[in-house]
Structures are given as C-alpha cells and as structure tokens.
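Subject: Interface between my chains keeps coming out wrong

I've been trying for a while to get a sensible model of this assembly. When I model each chain on its own everything looks fine, but I need the whole thing in one frame so I can look at the contacts. Pasting all components below, labels as-is. Any help appreciated, I'm running out of ideas.
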Amino acid sequence: MTPNTPDATIPTPSSPAPDVVRCAYMELVVTDLKRSRDFYVDVLGLVVTTEDENAIYLRSMEEFIHHNLVLRQGDAAAVAAFSYRVRSPEEVDKAEAYYKELGSPVKRAKNGFVTGIGDSVRVQDPLGFPYEFFYDVEHVERLAWRYDLYSPGALVRLDHFNQVTPDVPKAVKYMEDLGFRVTEDIQDAEGTTYAAWMRRKPTVHDTAMTGGAGPRMHHVAFATHEKHNILAICDKLGALRLSDHIERGPGRHGVSNAFYLYLRDPDGHRVEIYTQDYYTGDPDNPVVTWDVHDNQRRDWWGNPVVPSWYTEASTVLDLEGNPMPTVERSETDEMDVTIGADGFSYTRKGDEETMPEWKQGEYKLGHQL
Amino acid sequence: MTPNTPDATIPTPSSPAPDVVRCAYMELVVTDLKRSRDFYVDVLGLVVTTEDENAIYLRSMEEFIHHNLVLRQGDAAAVAAFSYRVRSPEEVDKAEAYYKELGSPVKRAKNGFVTGIGDSVRVQDPLGFPYEFFYDVEHVERLAWRYDLYSPGALVRLDHFNQVTPDVPKAVKYMEDLGFRVTEDIQDAEGTTYAAWMRRKPTVHDTAMTGGAGPRMHHVAFATHEKHNILAICDKLGALRLSDHIERGPGRHGVSNAFYLYLRDPDGHRVEIYTQDYYTGDPDNPVVTWDVHDNQRRDWWGNPVVPSWYTEASTVLDLEGNPMPTVERSETDEMDVTIGADGFSYTRKGDEETMPEWKQGEYKLGHQL
Amino acid sequence: MTPNTPDATIPTPSSPAPDVVRCAYMELVVTDLKRSRDFYVDVLGLVVTTEDENAIYLRSMEEFIHHNLVLRQGDAAAVAAFSYRVRSPEEVDKAEAYYKELGSPVKRAKNGFVTGIGDSVRVQDPLGFPYEFFYDVEHVERLAWRYDLYSPGALVRLDHFNQVTPDVPKAVKYMEDLGFRVTEDIQDAEGTTYAAWMRRKPTVHDTAMTGGAGPRMHHVAFATHEKHNILAICDKLGALRLSDHIERGPGRHGVSNAFYLYLRDPDGHRVEIYTQDYYTGDPDNPVVTWDVHDNQRRDWWGNPVVPSWYTEASTVLDLEGNPMPTVERSETDEMDVTIGADGFSYTRKGDEETMPEWKQGEYKLGHQL
Amino acid sequence: MTPNTPDATIPTPSSPAPDVVRCAYMELVVTDLKRSRDFYVDVLGLVVTTEDENAIYLRSMEEFIHHNLVLRQGDAAAVAAFSYRVRSPEEVDKAEAYYKELGSPVKRAKNGFVTGIGDSVRVQDPLGFPYEFFYDVEHVERLAWRYDLYSPGALVRLDHFNQVTPDVPKAVKYMEDLGFRVTEDIQDAEGTTYAAWMRRKPTVHDTAMTGGAGPRMHHVAFATHEKHNILAICDKLGALRLSDHIERGPGRHGVSNAFYLYLRDPDGHRVEIYTQDYYTGDPDNPVVTWDVHDNQRRDWWGNPVVPSWYTEASTVLDLEGNPMPTVERSETDEMDVTIGADGFSYTRKGDEETMPEWKQGEYKLGHQL
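Reply #2:
Try treating it as a single job with all components included. I did that and got this:
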C-alpha cells in the first residue's frame, strides 16, 4: 500500500461525502498515562468525563459531548484517530460508503470505538490518516457557566487538528471533495503550496494540512476565551518548573489572526492553545494567501519559528494500530526557503536591504540555523 | 392586515425556506445623521465603507461584506430592515416565493435596496417585521489584521438582532419554519415563554424574540474580541461625558453566557456590545431553559435590569416606510413577574427566605420599582 | 469621652507622628468563622497563613508579611483593628507617645495582639477608630510567582481601608498630622466635603474618610492584577449562586480611576476588589476635587450607587472590645444631595435639561429613591 | 579620567544624599527626529507636551509632570540624561554637594537643561552616567481619565531605567549610598553578581544595573495597565510592517514577575514595555536572588534571550556632549555562562539530564549560539 503517492490525485467518489459538522476529538496513544494525566488535567485543566486504568476521556469547559480528547496507554506515542462529528446517523453510513468507494481500509463499530461514542466508522484515509466519523454520542454537562471550576487558563473548546502530509494540493483536493473549504494558505511565487487551512464549522479551520513528511499529526488545538488565559498557562508552567513544555509562542499568528501557544506533552505530542480567529461561514469567504517569505505569516510579530516546530510531529496509526510509514515531501520545505543559506524572509516586501543595523545580527543568526 | 394576532398560528409554507447564512446588517432611520455618525463612528469606532448626505454605511473590523449597519436620515427614528444573508442567489428566489405563499407584502430589488447590496427581497413578515434576504454583495477589505486601526473598544463582528413581539411561541414556530433553531429560552412553571434565542450561524443567536408589545426592534448587537474592549467603551463614554448613553451593564448574561453592555444611540435605538457566547452548531445542541424567576438569568451577577430595558424599543417600518402599529402582549410580562408587588426573583431556588439582612433593603426597593 | 465631636478640632501633638509605611491588615470579628472561611478562602481565594478554632489569618498572593486580614470568631460582627505598618521598631514607640499626648486610650503589646505580629500599639484614635501600629512581623512566602496557586480572580495585595466618620475635614486634618496626604476628595460648591482619600504608600489611598454616622468601617479593599480578574469573581459568585454578595459594581470609579467591585461578606462587612489606580508619590501630586453632583464621580459610567452602599457600614470596637457608639453627620449627606427630592446629579455640567428622553424615566426613578 | 575602574570602590560622601523620589525622564539623542516621532508618537502613542524643530517632549497618560522622555536631534544616537525627581528644591542642592564631594563633573542650571524643568543639577556620576536631579517642574494635565485618547497599547507611566556597567557590586554600593535599595539580583554560586535591580519608589526598580561594558544605557521602560496592552503594541507593529522593531518578548520576567516586551527604536535605543511587578515599599522587603543558570530568571517561560539583548546598548554622553568611552566587564558574562560551549541553563535544578527528547535539539542549538 502506498498511502502518499504525491503524484497521484485522489479520485472524487460518486458517493456523496458525509456532512461533517466539526472536528470533535482526537485519540492519542501515550506511554505513561499517569504522567499525561498530570499534564492534561492538573496543568491544562481539561475535565475528566470518565477514566479507567487504560484510558482517560477529557473535555473542555464548553463541550456537551462526551469528550474532546482520549488518552490511551500504549507502548509508543501515536495518534489513533482524528474524529469528526457528522450531522446525523445516516451520515455515518455515507462516510462508510464514501471511503469504501475510495478503496480505503474501513471499520464500522456500532457501539463505537471508544467509551461515550456510539455507531462510528474509522478509515485509513487516502493520505494515510486514521479518520473517524460519528453522530451518536453521550451528552454530558456543558460546564460553560461553572465559573467555580474555571482555572486562569481554562480550555473552553476543541478548535482544530493539524496534519502533516507531503503533498498539500493533493490533500486540499481530497478535503474539498469531503466538503471542507480552504480559508487561508501559504504559497510562493512559483506556486508551491506549503500549508492550507480548511474548515467545516465557520472558523478558520477544523483541520490544516502542513507540508512535510507524512502522514503525521502536527498538533491538536484547544481554544481559550481570551489572550490572558493563554499567558496564564505559560505562567503556571513556569511556576511548576515545566516551562520546557513550551515549544513556541505565545504569539499572534499571521495566518488565522489568532493568538497562539504551542506546547509539547510528555510524549512530545504537540498541543496548540488558540484564541480569536474570525468568522468564515459565508460561502464566498475570501481566501487569504500568504507569501512563504513573509516573515509575519506564522508569527505576526516576526518572532522566529523554532526548527522543531517544522520538523517534529507525531506518528499516526493504521486501523490495526500499527505505525504508518511516512513519505517525504518532494517540494521545497517551508523552513528551508525561509531561513538558512537558501532561504529568506522579509518584514516589508522589497525592503530586505533596509533592516536596522541592530537587527541584522539576529537575521544573520537566523540564516545560520 | 393584523400582523400580530396572538391567537393565530402562522402556517408553514409548502415552499422551501431560504437557506439563511447569518444576520448581516440592520438599516436604521435616524433623525440627525451627523449626531448618529458621531456616536457610531467617533465613539464606537465602526468603519465607514461609504457615505453620502442621506446615509452612512458602516462595518465592523472583521467584516468583508459592504456593511453591517446603514444609518439613513429620516424624520422619525425607526428600523427599516433586518437583513439576512442567504447561501446563494437562488435562495433569494426561494425567500420571495416563501413569503408570497405566506401572503406577506414582498418587494424585490434586482439592484438592491441599499448601496453595496445586489439582488434582494424585502418582506413585511407575518410578525410585522421588515426582513431582507440577499446574497449578492460588494466585498470590501477585511480589516481584521489592521491593528493600526483598532481602538480599545473595537467592534469586530455584527453578532445578532433582538426583536420584540407579543407572542413568543408563535414567533418561534415561524422562525423554526424559516430554519432557525432555538438555543435558549426563558419560561415559567406555568409554561409561559418570555423570550427565545434562535440561530443560523453556530452562536447563541442571529436573532432573539422578546415578549412585549410589537413588532418593535429591541436591539442590534456587535461583538468585541475580549471583555476589556467592552469596558473600554464605557470608559470612553465617561471621558466624553456621554455616560448617559449606557443603559444597562456591563455584565455577564445568564442566557448566552456572554459578557454584555447595552447602549442607547442618540435616537434611543438600543445597541448591545457582546462577547464570548458559545458554539451551538451541533444538531443536538442542548437547549437551555431559564426560569423567569431566576435572578441570574439576564444578569449572572444578579444586578437589576432597568425598567427602560424592558419597556422601550424602536418602531419598525412597513415596506412603504410607515411605522408599524404594535399589538400588546396578552401574557404576563417578564418585568411584572420578576419585580414589583406581583413578582419575585431568587438567587438560590427555594432560598427566598434566607437572604442576608444587608441585602433585604435593596430587594424591597426592587419590589417597589 | 466624646470621640466625634464634629465641632472640635483635634490638636496637633508636639510628639512626632510615627512614620507609617502602609495599611497592612484589618482584624474583623465574624459571627460564623466557618462561613466566613468559605467566603474569604473558598470563594475569594485568600491564602491561609495559619488558623485555629477562633481565628484565621489570611494573606494576598504578593504579600510577604504574615497576614492582611484576621477573621476572629465573636458574637457580633465588628472591626477590631485597622492596622498600619511603620518604618522601624522605634516608630511604634513614637505612635504610643503620639496618641498618649492626644489623650487617646492606648495599649501596648510587646508580643503583639495577634499571631504573626510582634511589638504593637493599639489606640482608640480621636475619631473613635481602633488603629494599630507595628513594625515587627513574621515573614512568609511571597506567592507572587506561584501561578500554580492563582485563581481567575486572585487577590494580590491589600490596597486600602475606608472609614465612615461624621466630620470629614476634621478627620483629614487629623490624618494629615499623622503624615497622610490627600489625593482626591468630593466637595460641593458651598465647600462641604463629603469624602477624602489619603495615602502613605504612593497609590490613591491607604485609607479614605467617608462622611456619615461614625466611627464605622465602610470597607476593606484588595487589589487584583487586571480587570478580568474582578469580572471572574462575579462570574464565580454567580456559579455558586452567591451573586447576592455583590452589592455594587463592577464599574470604573471616577475618584481614583480604579476599576472596582463591592461585595458584602456573610456578616455584611463590605469588601472592595480594586485595580489600577495611579502613582501619587510625588510631593506635589495634584489633588483631584470632584463635584458631589457629578454623576461620574463614584461611577465613571454613571451607573447608580445603591442606597445600602451609602447607609450601611460595620461597627468598630474600642480597645476593650465594646462597640463604639456612633455620632451622626451634621452636614448634608452625599446620597441626599445627589438623588431624591432634594438632590441632583449631572452627566454634563450645565446640561441637566438636555437629557435624552429615553433616559429621563430612569432619572425620575432615581429622584424617587 | 577613568570612570569605571572596576577595582576601586566609590567612597561614601559625608554629604547627605539627595532624597530621590523616582526616575522621571530620559533625554535621548536621536539622528532623525521625524522618524523617532513616528515611532514614539504615532506607533507607541506617547503624548506630545511640546515640541520644536530640535526636540520633542513626551509624556505618558498618567503623568502630570512636563515629560518622561525628551527626543533631541543630534548626529549620533546617545543618552544625554537619566533624570530623577527629588523631594524638594533643597534636595537639588544636596545632590550638587554630594557629587562635588565625589569629585564628579557637576553642572547646575537654575532654569533647567530642558524645557519644562526648572532648577537642576547634572553630573557625570562615578560610573560614568549622566545623572540629573530636579524638583521644579511644570505641571501638565494628567490624562488618566481621558479614555477618549487611549490607544489599545497606551503607555501610562515611566517605570524605570536600566544601565550597563562593568562592575555590578561596585555600582550597587554606589546606588545604595544614594539611597536606593536592592530588590532582586542575579548571581552564581561563586558569588559573581550579573545584574541588580534597585528602587526608590516602591516598585521593583527605578533603575537596574546590568553587567557589561559600560557606561551604556540598556533600556528605558514604560508601563501599561494590562498585559493585553503590550500584545496590542506587537499587533500594531505587525500591521505597520514594523515587527522588526520587536527585539525580545513579549514574555513574563522571572526577575520582577512583570510582563514585558523589548523594542528597538529607529536608532536602536531599547525601550521596554512593562506591566505588573509588585509592591516593594516595606523596609524589610525580601530581596530575591536568582541563580544565573536558572533558565526562567529572565523569561519565566524559558524562552531564549536573543544575543543582541545581552550585547547591544546605547552610548551615553558626558556633560560636554561627548560619547563616554566604555570599560569592559572583567567578570564572566551572563550570556557566556548560560548558553554556548561554556554555559548551561536548567529548567529544574539538578534535572539537566532528564530533558524531554524533543527539547534537546533546541538546547543543543542554544549551546551553539
């Protein structure tokens, strides 16, 4: 099986695509459940809906479905599922037929693959990712009004996934067939696409496709109400002497206009904390295309992106629970074209030469990375 | 024609309802365009897309369609249109057919009723409100990233309308036929409904129906990013010695869980500033029903609702530009059942007797209002 | 003894006044220690330094001295001490001599009157208030960096006291002799002073004198870092169905320019939560005088002051633990001159006649209070 | 003259030190007055008190003295004065006598050296810095309540200076003689001091001494009310495509516990934006000593300090307007001992070996800087 043949376009099925409502939860395999619990519950404050010795089911403060994150004990860190909610029970059938027509490995579980979720279908999609689709789910208390339970950095919603895949246009075409719409992307003047953001719910994304060796999981993102909530998470990590979990940020994204922070969990899974992107629900919502050399595209303040953010990502599993092999990206890498000997970035287009003297040292440093 | 016969149910048309995307703009008639401009542009910071001697077209910072608010010079303050965007040009046709079947007065303007909007239909709906439906609209710069233009209280989105109508269940049935879904409502133990919130986009509402003499416009609401933005608007009004434009708040709503402020514009039109309600886009999103006697339903902190907020609202116009007569509410009023000789409110259900001594004076005062 | 003879000026001692550093703590008598603990520790998040069956010693997050608040079990709610820290051990001697010369009742406790504090002097001052002065104090961990312990509404500093006394100019003269400086006050055109704010540390106040029957304690105030922290306290009170503890606010003060909230504890003791006044440490810091009729003086947004805020305050104790009798104010009351039949307030000076129509109902209501 | 002989202690004068109230303003020489005005007025929003073709006098929103910053046109970027306010006119005389006894170059200007300031003394202090002391100053409107003039990133106070000097203990001893108190410092186990923070007003500092080749000016700092104000400055710089003015941050300091951002002005002068340190006014305020190898001392979140922040600083002028030569630091440099081949930093003391795998790449990178 060759899940990521960059040169082969994924065909559009004749079966109708399932009507996806939103990204709903991710299932993570972690190597030390207790240590992961410390991180997601005690540090980040996600709420335990239920747990047993093998798995913990967590939700955010405004969620009413059973969970937004499953942590499952395993031998090697990985992602077992990117799970989407569909609009009705019938849409689960549509998903099954859709992926069968695509020739993807498909499994159906009438009682769900995990606690709290009913009839579901899991597929290994044409890009190699383990996607799940479900409608039936246990309702739990929406804690939105329970301000007695809020912490300074309370996570209120699951916002999006982010996936690494070698061929972004191929992935975009496949996701558009599945009913997703592009809201923003990063390109260069030669037409190479480095990343694309796609949505079902009317935010900037339910998932994004980031160019790189894949299939891998780049990050899962939770939303806070305000920016100070994100700063509070940083402050708390400092107080707990866990600041090395901060990989990048906090900062303002160019893409999405959201305020962000990237953390790494005890297994290295990347978690973004994110707030305040914009409404994208109109059918003619303008797509924003960023120049890959624009130094404000990923951080609006021009702060550098650490190399690990570009290069590291989580293994994803096939439907048998085996790690998916990855395929390298054949096009140029975003990191390479923006920093280092072969790359460049600008703050003001056409103004590369007029950088203030005091800044040039740092830029040269950037070039050495 | 008797637009608001409380005892008559509005029939469900056999024509399909138009697919409404979201509330898009309101057209207000104001009696002193210059003075209204001072308020909406200089004080609140809405952005002028275009203007002439008779009208001003305003938008919020994250908007990409031509406007969210039209101020039009006129002799008497009123509301000329509650305008919704639909998903495609064909949906405008559907709206026309739908309301014709309902027997409502309907007008079609292929070039739009206002600058910036194309093919539109306006109707006087069965509740007596001037509703507009359009798809075609001029795109303008989305100023989301233009932080050089932000003020401390920047308004970033149009969030919702709020309408006063005598018979809330009748209005809800009509709006559900139109494809809206109830997210929250206020009832009493006897089954009287005092208000209901309804949405198309996945927030708590695109419009709400508030029980009272109607048809009248209760308020139009704009969103800020964070709570401090709303406080900044209050601070600025104080600095300009315009604090008497603040009618109620700021505070936290029980209903919607949003942070809010109510202002009155120079004509008395009510404007809400609003931030941080929650995602409601799932098909089985739980409806929240509040007890009308719960003193935290309209202000989560128990702060009193001023009487004018209950009793005053803006006149709406028919399609000829004449003020619509209003019909009184026949059921009990929310204000009457919650304060005054015949009303009561509780902080803790069943705990009316154990109020701290220092608070009883104020509660008695409340009863005297 | 007649502690509050409004017509008698308090003489200036020839002894030097003690060098007061700041307000340091208040000792409150509460009638149900467990219930008060619930309020101050579980709801407001003050930190317990130590406690026993009769008393609880509490501090704020940035404090390094033993406590900022003592709750002591007693039969009747009262204030046992307003305690100030002085610059050195010798200044305690100065305080003792100073008040002895004034003829005030004075007690010295070489081991302190309460746990955690050493050599102290307590006096019943010429206005009738139980004042304490100490230098020696046990140091405890300053929790400023312990973000793992912060709640969304964390109280970080004791900010000030507020005292009710019948004759404000008399009180001001006495406090100036004690080395305090006036930063702001409220007066009318006839020269009546309604309240004055006075400081040692360079904020707007360490204590304020509010005109009314006294001696009584109006409130004790704690600071948060930001405004959203104060809103979070309101939200939490709502979630706990304790919103009736909110007496007034949140709002922006005119006087002090701070953002505020007034709560009442289970005994009715008033607690202010306060943030962001300004630096006042220069010797020629400009005094700000507010017109008592300026409707933005106490709330910059013009929101009404509830009557209980003007009329209710806590009993203070003499050095034997007996309630101090109060003396009525002989001058006009701020509440009476600003609302009701004999009062008036303006938003814009000279603009009383041009209030918008929609606002006049509320103002008439105000006049009826 | 050898202003910075690291081995020579600066003697304590027998003359009394002037009673310094606070840091009051800095005078900067800039090479393009128009361009500097764009930065400080149009971007940062400082208020112009007055200006002419050679100089601009700027103040922050809560200031009531004439200015906090003077920009003066000159040929080479430099600092002409670090100016402190003293408690009375007589204290200016004391300053003159004090520095004359120290043998420092001293100038007295009865009408002030700059507009808005009266009788002043300027000295070239024993460390080589141009220090000014004044009492007499023109009062201007304190704009604290003028919320109509606030920008999202409004600067409300001058907070502190920061100076680079080769021998920190020598500088501390000199400043303590001048009446300053140390609040925090950075040391290593061998007793080397890398930096010290010192205050007159009860914040963490009025000035700090940073070890390095000196005398040079490291930065001047302005305060905002809240953290989001600092983020708004970054957002605005991004919108103006001036993000390359951001040198470091935003972040949370370990030292001072404040939230911070470092900018570079068009001449490379470093400006810090700063908010929410803590009260330090008690005479026994605990000094906080940080281990130089603690990776959270300068950024509580462990984000790296860019090399330019350590190595670059502004030239200071002598009283004749000539650039002061600098003397190298003879002790180890903070940058060298914390990163690179000879340095190390830890997140958890004693836990250098257990860093997560995904983080080690970055740390190795750190070592290569």
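Reply #3:
Confirming on my end. Chain B has two domains: 20-315, 339-368.
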